[in-house]
From TrEMBL:
It comes from Zoogloea dura. Keywords: DNA-binding. The keyword DNA-binding applies. Residues 9-69 form the HTH tetR-type domain. This is Helix-turn-helix transcriptional regulator. InterPro entries: Homeodomain-like_sf, HTH-type_TetR-like_transc_reg, HTH_TetR, PsrA_TetR_C, Tet_transcr_reg_TetR-rel_C_sf. The keyword DNA-binding applies.
Amino acid sequence: MAASDPATPDAKTRILDAAERLFMENGFAATSVRMITGAAGVPVALVNYHFGTKQGLMEAVYERALGSRGASRVTYLDKLEAEAAGQPIAVDVLVDAFLSSALRLTRKDSVTGEVFKQLIARAFYEPGPGTEAFFPAEYREAVDRYRQAFMLALPDLSQDDVVWRMYFFVGIVAYAMAGKDVMRMTETYSLADAGDPEAVLARLRPFIVAGFLAPAGSLQGLPRP
């Protein structure tokens, strides 16, 4: 069977491999479909056949790096909630559960942790409709499950306060996991652990826990420009 046959799994894999490498090197906007198919050694029509559009291909690249959708991101939370039997789960335990899930993303067998970090970094460098549309859909269920768990654990906070803290939490974790290339944008001196996701998340943990446990904020008393 010819490698360019639409039914050939190898052709689809070569397209994904080429797109992954080129998206990391050049970014989404600067990478054309012809560049990808040239690197993969397949006709342009196969991108349309397998992925529909360039954005569909980009989403497939991210999905392959992130792994299967849904259940894997809340497996540990399922276990914690079963053990808690309806009672609140401690905030630090919830933070640990979320961070451990995030850390596993850098250790996938199908794609190296460095590839995953570079893809996340590209999403920060070059935000656009593709990544903005994909990441919320990919994580909506997991983030909503954690939101409900944090609301139960923090009864003195309003839903708005919990949602804002989840928003900050997810954003900070994604930023930290993007690695030292993103951190270099703001650092003024070398961070020895910037390339080690486990060390970064260990440093991040007490900051996040303290943020969730802080009392509700107020704009009153803040200096006005």
